[in-house]
Amino acid sequence: xxxxSSPRQxxxxxxxxGCVESHCGYSHHHDNAGYDRLVLAALWCLGxxxxxxxxxxxxxxxxxxxxxxxxxxxxxxxxxxxxxxNFSQQLLKPAPLDPxxxxxxxxxxxxxxxxxxxxxxxxxxxxxxxxxxxxxxxxFINGYSPIRPAGVAREFATSIHGEVNPTVGGYxxxxxxxxxxxxxxLGVDGIVVARELDITPQPIDEWEEILTTDEGRVFxxxxxxxxxxxxxxxxxxRRGEQFAAATVSRIDDSRNRVEADVDVPNGDxxxxxxxxxxxFRGYKARxxxxxxxxxxxxxxxxxxxxxxxxxxxxxxxYQPDWLILGSATAAVxxxxxxxxxxxxxxxxx
Length: 349
Description:
Layout: H1 26-50, H2 60-75, E1 102-106, H3 110-113, E2 139-140, H4 152-155, H5 166-175, H6 182-186, E3 190-194, E4 207-212, E5 216-221, E6 229-232, E7 247-253, E8 257-263, E9 271-275, E10 283-287, E11 290-292, E12 294-297, E13 301-306, E14 311-318, H7 321-348
Parallel strand pairs: 1-2, 1-3
Antiparallel strand pairs: 3-5, 4-5, 6-9, 7-8, 8-14, 9-13, 10-11, 10-14, 12-13
Helix pairs in contact: 1-2
């Protein structure tokens, strides 16, 4: 597969991956609840016939509704379909991983591999499945996403808990882990591979194995961690174009906002600034008080083009229109409720 094409474009897909039902007895309890509802429906019909002239007939819908809720509570466990895990207390600490690095973690289907019934011992200190990296302030490009909306989750064919398709994971580590590969463009400088998977990032001279445990192996890209904001002189999505090498300093990276000082040399070439963050629609960029356009590299990470000879404080802010509209709507609703409460109080007085 050629450099720059996606795993899906290359035909590396596995539709069955992630389509495994958790064995929690859900089907059995679901069938029992179905039978109970049929019984309640039959009793309701019988009650309408027998209690046609009784005062109790009008209470039949209430009694049936209460009985349905009670039957659901008794027959369907509250944790049905949700496996339990014995997560390690080390998940609250970043060690043995580096909070300055951006990791890709490759592990098998978590709900079957790491649930208590299959692995009762503590897990997660190395692999950090799902959303657990945030507990210790670590940065992973894959994690929990129930809707797999766009970007990395779709490109890498991840499942709900961040499991990368093993075939795609093997391709990424063998073909896209070099210094000019897709993982480097994303800013990935750390890789975690589960013990169950026999894959190693290539080329070997680009990666150093720093840790091996019963849970998995940790690899770091040789050299220091990548900066979260970088200046790119070329990118394969814009072939034939060359960009100036800007100076990037004083990077301040938070959850929904990144700021950095950017100094672009004079000349006829603009600078291309990349951010090691997952791309979603709604990013806005400003250089001091000047608005700049935000695009992306194949929907994976945001990039901003800064004109030649410009210097200042560049800010990338995640501020989608729906968030602004929703916040305004919520504020208006709260104001209406307060006014209604005040008017109601005055009327009653």
